[in-house]
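Incident review: delayed structure delivery

Summary: a single-chain prediction request sat in the queue longer than the usual turnaround. Root cause was a stuck worker, restarted by the on-call engineer. No data loss occurred. The affected request and its eventual output are reproduced below so the record is complete for anyone auditing the incident later.

Affected input:
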Amino acid sequence: MKALTVCQPYAELIARGGDVKPLENRTWFTSYRGPLLIHAGKSRDWLGPDDEEAALYAVDVTKIAFGAFVALGDLVACLELDSAWPKEYRHLQDHEHAEGPFCLVLARVRRLPKPVECRGMQGLWVPSPAIVSACLSQSKPDPLPVSPEEDRT
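Output delivered after worker restart:
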């Protein structure tokens, strides 16, 4: 299973699921598809005293997790913003959070009832088996399947 560290308040918006923030922007492409843990970064650099994004979505920054896993879901596509998108994702191309240059499309995102503390990393990364187990034990009702192309190293 892979993980992605996302700065707050964006990790919180992803954890809310649905159409709030169904994609994450990156400067790099990935061919990985499969289960993905969403990690809220420890940094507060993206949060100002009057953070507009947090205010827009009524995010109380005193009550969100930092330096912890907050959600799990599936990474289903990585699409270049300025290219033609497959029909099933075209509705997301004009989403307010689609900034690119690459958009990681997320599906089946579920918030973890209790954040799991862990140090984050850049890029897609592989958390320890103990951390994965702690996150998956909170997944209800249907744990994520193991992807056949999952990197097991």
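Verification: The helical segments are 10-15, 52-56, 129-136.
Action items: add queue-age alerting; document worker restart procedure.
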